[in-house]
Design brief:
By secondary structure, this protein is of the alpha+beta class. It has two domains: about 60 residues, no CATH class; about 120 residues, PDZ domain (Pdz3 Domain), CATH 2.30.42.10. The protein contains five helices and 15 strands. The strands form three sheets. Strands 8, 9, 10, 11, 12, 13, 14 and 15 form an eight-stranded mixed β-sheet that branches. Strands 3-4-5-6-7 form a five-stranded antiparallel β-sheet, with no helix packed on it.
């Protein structure tokens, strides 16, 4: 729970999952509360106020961070069949929650055998759209090595920030396509 007070207004106690003026309380931590409105995350940092006998007072602050698209979108360049990615962008690809706001992927199986990973959604304007991934692509290999398990995919994911180049093999419209990336 969090007690939210607007400047000059009454305080209101709200529980996780409840909404106040369009802002849904997602989580309360010791030092902050996270709210969502229209898919964007807003942070209210908690601070001690000596006039309130040690209770925390919420003070609004703008969004937690600038979006990946705003920060790196213009730095993604395509030349011929190769997409050039800034190394800093790959360093940002560690937060699965942020990634899955921009793209949805699910294992695609034939019986018990993993065929690849189906891209079920690519958010318009996202870095994933800019690097050439499309809805209904099936990612079948990374750097020429077939993805045989979720663990294979997570192993590559864990190495993203160390890469200087990457190739994704996808099946698009029943045809194999190789997406090439160079990191600068």
């Amino acid at each position: 729970m969090a007690m939210v007070a607007k400047a000059g207004g009454k305080a209101k106690l709200i529980r996780q999952g409840e909404t106040l003026e369009g802002y849904r309380l997602e989580r309360v931590d010791v030092d902050r509360a996270l709210f969502k409105k229209r898919g964007e995350t807003f942070v209210l940092h908690l601070k001690k106020d000596s006039g309130m006998a040690g209770r925390a007072v919420l003070t609004p602050r703008k969004r937690e961070s600038e979006s990946i698209e705003k920060r790196y979108g213009d730095q993604i360049q395509k030349e011929g069949q190769t997409v050039y990615l800034p190394k800093e962008l790959l360093g940002q690809m560690h937060d699965l929650k942020k990634i899955f706001k921009r793209i949805s992927i699910m294992p695609l199986r034939k019986g018990k055998k993993l065929e690849g990973f189906l891209v079920t959604r690519v958010a318009r304007g996202s870095v994933f759209e800019k690097i050439g991934l499309r809805t209904r692509d099936v990612i079948v290999a990374v750097d020429g090595k077939a993805l045989k398990s979720e663990n294979d995919a997570m192993a590559y994911f864990g190495k993203l920030s160390d890469l200087s180049a990457l190739e994704l093999t996808v099946i698009r419209n029943k045809k194999k396509k190789v997406l090439r990336y160079e990191v600068y």
